[in-house]
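Shipment paperwork, digital attachment
Item: protein structure file
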Amino acid sequence: MSLIRPELLERLRPFREAMVAGMLALLGGWLVWLGGFLLMPVGALVLIVALGWALSALRRARFARRIEAPGVVELDEGQIGYLGPTFGGYVALAEMVELRLIEMYGRRHWRLRQADGQVLLVPVAAEGADVLFDAFSLLPGADMARIAAAIDAPVARAPLWTRPPSGLRRISSP
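Attachment content:
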């Protein structure tokens, strides 16, 4: 028998990591409060690390959704894969050039486009879609705060991320 209702436990599940980071921040704050030449700097360091971890965990928690869409998302060796009942495929992170959030049939989907034009649609509420936070954080120049905030905001037409130019251009000789 649990002292906490199962519905509340289910709602708190995505925030487990943030709660652990919060407890670590409390420990760091306690060490700072104890003071001294040793405990105060160690406590400050623990507090800073815990607050950074908590911020990242709260952004990651936005990606954790109740599974309402069919299919499974997987992240394997630099590739995002979606295996659904009607469509699916893989997109290499190194080949991705654009990330958008779109709405189709009343559900939100990540639209991942590769350099060769291939597009993969991944439902936000698919099983395993929470691993996309870690995948998107590997994209060069990705603003994870903006991407995480886009999940709960109205869908915008502009891409959330586009690959920055490499700066290297091919020079063709006559």
